[in-house]
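Protein modeling request. Please complete all fields; requests missing the sequence field cannot be processed.
Requester role: graduate student
Desired output: 3D structure, C-alpha cell encoding
Chains: 1
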Amino acid sequence: MSGQPIRFCSESMNAPAKVTGYQHAHTALCDRRLVQSMYGECDVLMERVLLTLHGEPHACRRAIEWKLFRRDFARYYEREVYPVTLAQTLAAYLDQGRLDLPEFGFRVNINLSADIAGIDRPEGSESETDALVAFTRKFSEGATLFHSTREKEVVRQEVADALAQFNTRFLTPSKRRREAILEKVARGMQSEDQAPRDILTVLLANRDDQDLNDDMILREVAFFMQAGAHSSANALTHAFHELEQWSEAHPEDRIRLKTDDRFLQRCVHESLRLHPASPVAWREASESFSLPDGTPVAAGDSVLIDLMSANLETSLFGQDAASFNPNREVANRIPTFGLTFGIGIHTCFGRDIAGGLGNAKDSDEAPHLGTLTNLLKSLLQHDARPDPARPPVADTATERPNWGSYPLLVGAPQSVQSTGLTR
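Delivered output (423 residues):
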C-alpha cells in the first residue's frame, strides 16, 4: 500500500530461520517437512480446517474439496452467478452515490463465499446479509489473530460466540437441507448431479470417511466463508488504490482501464503481487533438515518464508519490482501475481475464481477475468472515484497493511451533484 510500510508481527518468537527470494520461497512452500504454523492462535476457528491440516489428513481433505474448484466452476460462476450478485449489491450504493470500498467488497463477496461454503439464505434479505457480514468479519479477525493488535483472549471468545450464533441461524438449517438431499441420493430417489455443489455438501457426504464431527464441519465452513470475503475485500481496495495512482501518473490509460479487459486484469495481478494477503508465511519444521539456502533447522524450529521478498525480486520482476507497473514483462514460468496465492499443497483454492485463469498475458483466447477484475470493471464503468471530503484510512486493528476505510463516490458526477453530494 503506497504510503504505508509493510508491517510484520511484533510478537516475540524464537528467532525463526528466514527464507527469502522467489526460488527459495517457492521451494520452501512446496516442502512437506514445513508445517503451517501461522494460524494456531485461534484454534476455536482454525483447528483441523484444511489450511492447518498436514500430511495425509490434509491430502484427503483437499482431494474431496478440490473438485469444487475446477475451472468449469470458475467460469460458470463468473458468467452465470456473480453478475447477478454484483448488480444487486451495487444498486443500493449507486442510489446513494457513494460507498466505502472495503465494506462494499466484503458485502458483495459474502454471497460468493456463502455459495461456495454451502450456506443458504432463504429470505434473500438485507438482514441475512448483515448477519453474514458480521459473523464473517469476526471469523476473519480470528483467522488473522496472529497479526491482531487486540487482546487475543477477548477475540477468541468473540469468535466462539459468533460461531455458535452462525451455527444456529445458518449452518444447521443448511445442513438439514443437504442431509435430506443426500439421503434421497443414497436411496436412488435423486441423482448425485442434483446435489448442491458446495463445501458443506462435500463434507456431509464424506463425514464418515473423513472422520468429521459437527464441530469440525462448522469450523471448515466458517473458515471458507471468511477466506473468500476477507481477502477479496482487501485485494479489491488495494487494486483500486493502485489503479487510481497509476491513472494520475498515466492519464492516457484511464479509458484503457474501462475498455481493455486484459489490461485491467494485468493491473489486478500486479496489485496482487504487491499486496499478498499476508507478506510472510510461517512454518514449523517437522524434522531436522536444511532449508533451500543451506540453513540448518531442527524439528520444532520456526521458519519465516518472506513472500514479499519473493514478489519483489528484481531478477524476475525488473528493477522497478517494488513499484506498480502493469506493463512489466515477466517470464512465462513466473505467475504475474508472484507467490501471492501460495504454491504447492497450500495453494489458495480461490486463485482462479478471484484472480482469473492464466497470467493475463497476450493470448487469442478471451480471458476469464475473475471476480476481482469484474468488480473493478463495474466500479470503473460507474465512474467510481475517491471522495475528496473523506480520505482513506489504514486499518489499525491489525498489523497487516490493509485499508480500514476507503470512501468512493460512484455514478456520473452530475447525478452525484444533484443529490447534494460534493466531489
